[in-house]
Amino acid sequence: MSAHADNHAHDDDHGHHHKETFVTKYIFSQDHKMIAKQYLITGTIMGVIGVIMSMMMRMQIAWPEEPNVLFEALLGKWAPDGVMDADIYLALVTIHGTIMVFFVLTAGLSGTFSNLLIPLQIGARDMASGFLNMISYWLFFLSSVIMVISLFVEAGPASAGWTIYPPLSALPMAQGGSGMGMTLWLVSMAIFIASSLLGSLNYIVTVINLRTKGMSMTRLPLTIWAFFVTAIIGVVSFPVLLSAALLLIMDRSFGTSFFLSDIFIQGEVLHYQGGSPVLFEHLFWFLGHPEVYIVILPAMGLVSEIMATNSRKPIFGYRAMIASILAIAFLSTIVWGHHMFISGMNPFLGSVFTFTTLLIAIPSAVKSFNWLTTLWKGNLQMNPAMLFSIGFVSTFITGGLTGIIMGDSALDINIHDTYFIVAHFHLVMGISALYGMFAGIYHWYPKMFGRMLNKNLGYIHFWITAVCAYGVFFPMHFIGMAGLPRRYYTNSNFPLFDDLANVNVIITIFALIGGIVQIVYLYNFFGSIFFGKKTIQNPWRSTTLEWTAPIKHIHGNWEGEIPHVHRWAYDYSKPGHDDDFVPQNIPLKDGEEELQH
Amino acid sequence: MTALLTIIVLVFILVAIWQMVKIFDLAQAKSENSQVATDKDNTINAYLMMAFLAFIYIITIVCFVKWGDLPLISNSASEHGPGFDNLMIITFVILFIVQTITQFLLHYFAYKYKGEKGRKALFFADNNKLEAIWTIIPVIVLSGLIIYGLNTWINIMGVDESDDPLVIELYAQQFNWKARYGGNDNTLGKANVRLIDIDRANILGLDEADPNAQDDIITTELHLPVGKPVLFKMRSQDVLHSAYMPHFRAQMNCVPGMITQFGFTPTVTTADMRQTPQIIKKIENINKIRVENSKPLIAKGEEALEPYEFDYLLLCNKICGKSHYNMQMKIVVETQEEYDAWIAEQKKFKNSLIN
Lengths: 597, 355
Hints:
- The complex is a heterodimer of chains A (597) and B (355).
- Chain A has a two-stranded antiparallel ribbon.
- The two termini of chain A are 12 Å apart.
- By secondary structure, chain A is an all-alpha fold.
- Chain A has 18 helices and 2 strands.
- Chain A has helices spanning 8-12, 22-27, 32-62, 69-75, 86-122, 130-149, 180-209, 222-254, 277-311, 318-332, 347-359, 361-375, 384-406, 409-415, 419-449, 455-481, 501-516, 518-531; strands at residues 264-265, 268-269.
- Chain B has helices spanning 2-27, 39-67, 71-74, 81-112, 128-157, 270-275, 277-299, 336-345, 349-352; strands spanning 166-173, 176-181, 217-219, 222-225, 230-236, 241-245, 250-254, 260-264, 312-316, 328-334.
- In chain B, the strands form 2 sheets. Chain B has a 5-stranded mixed β-sheet with strand order 3-2-1-5-8, with no helix packed on it. Chain B has a 5-stranded mixed β-sheet with strand order 4-10-9-6-7, covered by helices on one side.
- The interface between A and B is large, with 141 and 128 residues.
């Protein structure tokens, strides 16, 4: 317990010496709290785009090739007379995936909460480098803008799937979206990766160097552990995707053959020789798999914290929670091949990846059981954030269990690229991570905006969303097991699947309701910024340091000295105290022992 | 116009929800409008948690009963199929048990320990024994699944050349499939897309000088003799495709620039498969749906949908461009005699060239 960080240099320049203009405060802000809000709002806007896309896809699948007013209004020339074009369907698949995985669940989730919580919960004035932090956000903003612009390209946006496997993504003659649309996609992602790396480096440095006095690594809230490890995974794996993207750009524009060989298309032989698309798959999934943990770990951290607070109980097995985060992080970098069992890779490699993949179930199981035990004999405060946290554990278990099927190379043969995998990953990383994000927003909204979100709207939001999430993705497993491939514009060419059409209609109805109910949340979110009830200092009676900072945001987070930390983050309902929580900055009483956690 | 009306309706619904919430807020004790959950909220949501648990169980049961016995899960048509299906069923049983128990605990705890003012939670931060238990149990269960799974995987992927398998090339291009048989010598001639000569109808790029290529047979339907091991060699000429044969529990990507392979032994002929009760039931159901779907077509003066008869299928299962959704080939599994008769009718490569 001696890893006290030295914060003195920072102490001196806190606060209100220099004047802030509108531009430095709201636009090119270097304040982590403002940057967090910027990430959140940009992520929300991208999320709205992504969700609308998914609803259009669902309508197309349920009522294929039928005219639809919405298509006509939103897709323009891609939906002549309101009938969706097959090319744009693939584009929607691609951009929906890209936006949700990277722009919403990576930047929107991790960017928002890492920025907001790291300095506030470890007791720092700001990020290690406010300037890099600002650059990181603006690069993210730029990449979002480019991604949105790519939707309006003449020949169509990128439509090779979010995994952009070459040669499909490399050859403009293979599909319209592989022209300018794909170029913009690659440029946007390259910028996104730069943004993500700058952010991650900042988070790592801040957590290591700027902890306040007494905040040892074993006193950190689990949120910080999750953000810290997430940032490390990001730094390890994102550069590999960047190199894959750069090599693909070379193949596309400069005639190299990294990923291409022996191609005959549209009546001509192309010059490419000696490359391999499988190499791209390796590079892509070397990021692509850790990426799902980049998405889910921060959600896990938020949920752990919110669950402990609202159960009025310490998180169960704090050390086991950290150990499982580390185990998941390590394993996540050696399992990428489970996306490639049938890619033509040596079957022996498939065996190895099956082994490492199924191992991940162990730390995941430990985490799930620890969350369950945290609830046991608690005094559960059913705030909307708590509901979303419980929902997270529910969908994480349901979606995670089917991972044992997907990760088994033998079983993967027949369900690979069917709707089974769509159902699996939407539950375990899509819905779960979104729940984590919503939980975080409901919980830290008062910290961000100084006002409370309306809880009754929150309840409506949660319950309808929860029912719809299961209504959409649970039946989807079964149409996948029936052999229905994903990414099909319509299934009407396969009479074999005619009896699944009604399942698809049910799924779509749930999806539409679930999508529309998000308007309640958006209304609550944006309305409460102005009209929400003003918050009190520590509305959830939480132990962590951010609730000791003034409600009104000041540059430097605390007036006067930064609080010192004397105990771990989970002293809830500790015997010997009158209150059911003891904040981290309260010194131990005489004779009180800090828990040997 | 419809869009505008929809928007207006949505706005009204939102206003209505907002009003309801306001009334709800006002109806609550005056001092308690802090947007933090009260005991009453805790109770209501605790009951909803139990209701939600029931919902999860119901949706699980409905899905399994209504869609869980799809012929694709139970009716495999290849030698390794039953092994695959057993592994699937065993895994499912384990997952089902875990899912049922953990979801119960989660929602039941949320109900049982709902917050009440003045009650204090149990300070219970750690227990090495408990944690050891729920580390070791998954380790044991997963070890079993890993060993069983890998065994099955090796069985499926291992190709035994001594079986003298029938070698067939599956050739993928945007957006159709071709099959190439080795002919009498059961050896595929050399081929490369660089040798494609559309004018001479050398569409798969066979090496015209290779003696093995002369008797190769290129077809647009895949015929397989029942009970004979088949080794597929996959090629693609343009982008990634995936040869997906769900009834045989078989799938492998087709990668430009490289030859991939997958082998299996078909065990049930198309004719026999059509006679199995599950398939009869499934096809009846499908045809009922098709008759239903034909009604609006007939009303519009269009042709009705043809009645469907079961066939094995090869589907493309890797996104490959605009018509990915319609890239398929019929597979016919038949007796050796039928197969011999069929293959004898097909043109040999050297005879198919245009000079």
